[in-house]
Amino acid sequence: MAADQLGHNEELPGQNDESCWVDVPLHSAGLWSASKARNFLNYALPRLQLQLALIFIVTQSLHVLLRRLYMPRIVSEVMAGVILGHTFLGQIPQFTETLFPEEGEVLLDLLSKIGFMFFMFLAGVKMDPGMVTKTGVKAWTIGLSSTVIPVGLGLALSKSVEEQLPLYRRSGIRSVLSTLFLIPFPVISALLVDLKIMNTELGRLALAATLIGDLTSAGATFFVGNIRLTWIGWRSSMVAQIFILSLTLIVLLIFCSRAASLWIIKSTPEGKPVKGFYVALISGAVLASAILSDNVGLQYQLGPFLLGLSVPDGPPLGSTLVERLETLISGFFGPLLMTSCGLKLNLLLVFDVGYMRTLWYVIWVEVLGKFVSILVPAVVCRVPLRDAFALSFIMIAQGIVEIAAYQNDFDKQTIDRDTFTALIESVLGIATMSYVVVRLIHDYSRRYTGYQKRNILHTAYNSELRVVACAHRQDDALAAIKLLEISSPATESPIAVYALNLVELVGRTSPLLINHGLGQKASAIGSRSQQMIDVFHSFEQHQSGSVSVQVFTAMSLQKFMHHDICSLAFDKSASIIILPFHRKWNQQGKVVFDSNILRNVNRQVLEMAPCSVAIHVDRRKVHYESSGTRLQFHVGVLFLGGDDDREALAYGKRMAKSLGVHLTVVRLVAVDVTAENPWDTVLDIETLKDIKIQSSTQKNIAYREEKVKDGPESALIANAMEEAFDLIMVGRRHRDDSPLLSGISQWSDLEELGPLGDILASSDIKRPVSVLVVQQQVVK
């Protein structure tokens, strides 16, 4: 029972003499109280408020200083506890007894555990479980090896080390090893956010491999734990009951909360935030899920994590939850767990040197084994060596999950204070090492570029071609659809279209990305995009079974639009981005629209894109000419050689799979042969060999060579193609010293189109011929 708010012991009516009465002073009446018997720090509430204020001030002050030394936030949070604890200020007489007494620890621990519940919930919200099915062989290989090998190594270490330790130390070593082989997704994702490499090839690979490893280890721990209970003598009926209850809770949390989340999303208008009532309801569900999971025998944080996992990530629900809760949880409640651990440390105690030597040996051997189990498979999977090392340091990082596990073991007295102190020190050391090393070796100029092939040339014809089609206006959408129609969509070679409607941010303070495929209510923002949505969905219905379409609207400042485009292409693993040209023509061939802002957007996308890019110069509506009983669309590919021309030819070959498209490849050959890159020459020959064979067997493919001596002759051939083709495709980049472009490359006005693309997009051309300038994915 608790006392009244003033802490006085007043006998309640009907209270008998045998009742137990505990004086728990909650808060004082302040300076004006008639009773001066107690210091205000003897009351729980003001003492807790002062504790929280001190923790926040010391933590933030340390972080301001240590971040200049590239120290992660976790160091500041734990060190704040060390400073306020027994090691430093605790040496002042009566400091700990007055400000951090033992009876007050329960309140800090309670708040820290509530913060940890919500931290795990938000980690689940940010996680995309579908990533497991989308990842390739690299992520599966690295994720599984990073779990299986450390577990095997841990078992071997446990057997060899336990024989040298007294009985009371052995359970602690087993507990330590069971935590060391974990690769917790929340820790890795938080590290990637701090390092600002979440949306990179390396970050995506680390997330996917970590997710696979985390889910694998969690599933294995769940099943092995139940088997172990049977092994040590628990009744099989009781074990079966625990197993069934746990499995039922997991299924209910995932499926019921998923259904509820989808209902909330559908009831939220497009572009509008989720109502505060739903956020409060979900917050209550987080606490309820922790109670349920704790009572069925699972770890209390597993329920909130599974609840978050069932919430669809991104807007509107996932992003709203993160936006509303992130600051409070990560900035206030999250550090409490770290700081409360630091308060329990005492670095001045004399340790058992022999045992500490054994413990540190176990820690570093297990960490080194985990590092090697990530590095070797990454190198075998052809991840560049520099990225393989960075990936290994990322995935061995430790943080709040390990600290929570060690604190739980300490509270249950599975480990003693010496072991607990050494383990927290190891977490700080490994976390700092990972953060600093990755900052030093990662190339931050590669935000979206990477080493995974995302282009048309390396996309098999019988696999799905993923295209991001960008549009600023309805004419752009129609032009993109006409281009996609001739891209030979078929059931055996489907095309996935991610249509992105780009809208300038006006009247809002924050950017917005709307997914129109979530079934939300229409809103004013959604209605403005409705015509474009209808156009793309009509195309999808017309190409039923061979084309899938997802429509998005991105509202942002025009100077940031390239980030929206590149981010969507990266998230969807697109092979090519189709951008509209910044100029528009009317039916008379006159330029009626010219935007330097949109031109800058295109140039920035070309610089940052994670895949191939094509700028579509659309001068007319698609026109089919009759050829027998079929309609044919004439496509010409101007081939000089190089990566971009090979990409343009690969796209042209895909179009030619449809008999309604007639493809002509015109190769320009220099009269005077100059020194060229031998590897490029080999690749050009191999690429053209296939098209030469097809031109002799297929009526809709033609190939010819034209010999030229300089750039002006190349320009004449390009201009002559205007009359024969509906679409001309050309690569953007070529050798600077190429004789095929000598004399014209210096006079190019539109560098984003290249010399020949600039000529073909000239305002002087009055024929309604469209141009597609292609740049292959830049791999650094």
Automatic annotation (TrEMBL):
GO terms for molecular function: antiporter activity. Residues 496-619 form the Cation/H(+) antiporter central domain. Keywords: Ion transport, Membrane, Potassium, Potassium transport, Transmembrane, Transmembrane helix, Transport. Residues 60-428 form the Cation/H+ exchanger transmembrane domain. The chain crosses the membrane at residues 48-66, 78-95, 107-125, 137-156, 176-193, 205-227, 239-265, 277-298, 359-381, 388-407, 419-438. It is found in: Membrane. Pfam families: CHX17_2nd (PF23256), CHX17_C (PF23259), Na_H_Exchanger (PF00999). The keyword tRNA processing does not apply. It is a multi-pass membrane protein. The keyword Membrane applies. Residues 634-778 form the Cation/H(+) antiporter C-terminal domain. One of its GO terms (biological process) is proton transmembrane transport. One of its GO terms (cellular component) is membrane. Coiled coil: none annotated. Belongs to the monovalent cation:proton antiporter 2 (CPA2) transporter (TC 2.A.37) family. CHX (TC 2.A.37.4) subfamily. This is Cation/H+ exchanger domain-containing protein.
